[in-house]
Amino acid sequence: MAQLSYDPDVTALLVVDPYNDFISEGGKIWPRIKDVAEANNCVPHMKQILEAARENKLRVFFAMHHRYREGDYETWKYIAPIQKLAWNRRTFEFGTWGGEYRAEFVPGPGETVASEHWCSSGFANTDLDNQLKRQGIHRLIVIGLIAHTCIEATVRFAAELGYDVTVVKDAVADYSDEMMHAALEINMPNYASAIVGTEEILVALSSVRSAASAAQ
Length: 216
Fold this sequence. Notes:
- There is one protein chain.
- This protein has 8 helices and 6 strands.
- The protein is α/β, with parallel strands linked by helices.
- It is globular.
- The mean pLDDT is about 95.
C-alpha cells in the first residue's frame, strides 16, 4: 500500500460520538463494546489521533448523536428500531453525564461541532456537509463509534456526497468481532478509499507537519 498523504488544506479529522455512554466506564453502552474496544485499544487510539491532528494543524469536526430528551419520539409516526432502543434506554440523555463528551474529546477552540444526527449518519438531517464544504474540506479521516452503525452510515453518506474517506480500523469499536468484520472488511471497503491502522495515520499526520515546516 502506498504511503498515506494528506493535504491539511482539504483534510479534516471527523470524530463520531465520543460520549461517556459509549466509551467511559459506567456508560450505558460501554459494557456492550468494552471487549472489542479494549482489544484494539480503541479509546487510546482515538485520543492519539485527535492529539496528532491538533498538533499538526488538521481541522477537527465532531458528528454527535442526538441526545435524548423527554418527549423526543412521542409524536413520531415511524421510529427506526435503533431509535426505539435509544428511547427505551434514554441513551446519551441530555443533561446527564452519559450525554457528555468523554473528557479527552471535548471540542477545542475553533473546532466544529455539527448539529446532532437523529439516527446513524452524521450527514443526514444535519449541517455537517455544509460545515465541511464551507471550510474547503473534501477528505475525511474518521474515528469513533459504532463501526456498523454510525461509522458505516456516515462513511457511506460521505462517499455519496463525493468525499474521500479514510477509516481508522483500530480507532472504532463495535458490539462483537463479527460486527467489526462485517463493517470493516465487507461493507466499508466499498465506500472508504482507505481502511488503515492508527500507526499509519500517525505517520501520515506527522508528515503533514514536516511538509508544512519545509514549505516555510
